[in-house]
Amino acid sequence: NVYGMDLDRDGNIVICSATRSPDAPTTPGCFQPRFGGGPSDMLVAKISADLKKIIWCTYVGGEGDDFPRGGLAVDGRGCVVVVGTSSSADFPTTPGAFQPKRKGPRDSCVVKLKPDGSGLVFGTLLGGSGEDDAIMGVRVDPAGNLHFAGHTRSSDFPVTPGAPQAKLGGESDCYFAALCWFCLSRLMI
Fold first, then answer.
1. Of 14, 45, 51, 74, which has the fewest beta carbons less than 10 angstroms from its beta carbon?
2. What gap in Å lies between CA 12 and CA 44, rounded to an integer?
3. pLDDT tens figures, 135-152
């Protein structure tokens, strides 16, 4: 299944999926050429507009279950943002990330890949001590800020001061968040 698709400014097709295959067609110089382990990894690829060539293809994931339930978006510079869920203790995050380590059994996750798929611009987790299932959608605004929505079961989810609803209201609640492009460690929920 394809869980997200977008076009870059040249009309190339960018897709993300989940895979269990240790032999996906990753490309030389990609961010993660090998399967991370667990039930699944995210698989992100850019395919030429005429569908004749894989421009790049990479895994994104660690030793647990990594799944792009929330799809992807391509920003104005051609970077690829993929969101979803992870149960990996070693999910690929970057220095200065809002949340570099998993806090619960499964946390939401956000990664931003370079336009050529060769590395991460940033990667972060987002969650509390409960079951934070996933980010379910992402958009990039004209300034490059990320806006996403997901759901959580954590009573200690990192809600920002002044949020309209500061506490978990039921068994599972939706959340909306924004990540500023200029300050990767600052999250607004």
1. 51
2. 13
3. 889 999 998 899 999 999
Tell me the CA end-to-end span of the chain in Å, nearest whole number. Answer: 30
Gyration radius of the chain's alpha carbons? 16
**Amino acid type, 77:** R
Alpha-helical segments (H) within the chain: none
pLDDT at 133 over 80: no
Burial 69-103 (b: 16+ CB within 10 A, else e): bbbbbbbeebbbbbbbbbbbeebbbbeebbbeebb
CA separation for the pair 159, 61 (Å, rounded):
26
- Model confidence pTM above 0.85: yes
